[in-house]
Amino acid sequence: MPYYRIPEMDPLSPAEGVEIRVIHGERMTLAFFRVSAGARVPEHAHPHEQIGTVIRGVMDLAVGDETFTVRTGDAYHVPGGVPHSGYCGEETELVEAFCPVREDMR
Amino acid sequence: MPYYRIPEMDPLSPAEGVEIRVIHGERMTLAFFRVSAGARVPEHAHPHEQIGTVIRGVMDLAVGDETFTVRTGDAYHVPGGVPHSGYCGEETELVEAFCPVREDMR
Fold first, then answer.
1. Average pLDDT of A2-12?
2. Strands B29-35 and B92-99
3. Residue A1 has what pLDDT?
4. Domain residue ranges of chain A, discontinuous segments joined by +
5. How far is CA A85 from CA A2, A5, A44, A48, A62, in A?
6. In chain A, whose CA is at the least distance from the CA of B97?
7. Residue B16 CB partners (closer than 8 Å, separation 6+)
8. Which residue of A24, A60, B98, B99 has the lowest C-beta tally within 10 Å?
9. What number is the ipTM of this complex?
10. Is the pTM of this model over 0.90?
11. pLDDT tens-place string over residues B38-97
12. What confidence score (pLDDT) does residue B106 get?
């Protein structure tokens, strides 16, 4: 059954204070991030296109040479290949879609 | 700047009580649904793969010949081409990713 209880899934933890629970489809991945207060997603880049949104909290998001603060109800687009990073001053939940599938998150 | 304040965007309204605000990337669409209490998303199908999650509320979701109830923190996958529909007994917010881009939502 194509149905998931996200909080019950085992997380990946690519950086201290960052948990990611992921659903992989055939052509895309939906990833659920929980970032602790004071935690960072270090700068990285991937060929996958990324569209994300803040479910709860706040993140200072750097995309290429721009930095902006995204809050609950905000969304952002990161084109494939563009370096980006994040810092969350409080506990924050994000949902991010990636295309194609993030094989590195299996 | 690839940055959006979702509540300030103009919605599409494909059915009574259903508002959708959308961000289109190059290869996918992220759609923000607000469904009023008692509103339905009528049965429909599209070739796009779909992965969704409930941000707030509850939805009775029928996918193919299965029906299940999804609540805050749940997620679901709808393969391309499979008929599906939803009913929300209370005001509900969903985020759904589609691949490829939903040209019909431009």
1. 95
2. antiparallel
3. 52
4. 6-105
5. 31, 27, 7, 15, 5
6. A97
7. B39
8. A60
9. 0.96
10. yes
11. 999 999 999 999 999 999 999 999 999 999 999 999 999 999 999 999 999 999 999 999
12. 92
Shortest CA distance from A50: residue in chain B = B25
Q: Both tokens of residue B88?
A: 């929300």
Q: Which amino acid is at A95?
A: V
> What is the homologous superfamily of the domain B6-105 according to CATH?
Jelly Rolls (2.60.120.10)
Sign of the torsion formed by the C-alpha atoms of B105, B61, A2 and A11: positive
d(CA A90, CA A44): 21
Q: Which residues of A touch B (CB under 8 A)?
A: 1-7, 23, 25-28, 30, 32, 49, 51, 53, 55, 63, 66, 68, 70, 73-80, 95, 97, 99-100
A62, two tokens: 């750097």
User: Could you tell me if B14 and A83 are in contact, meaning their C-beta atoms sit under 8 angstroms apart?
Assistant: no
CA angle B54, B70, B50 (to 5 degrees): 65
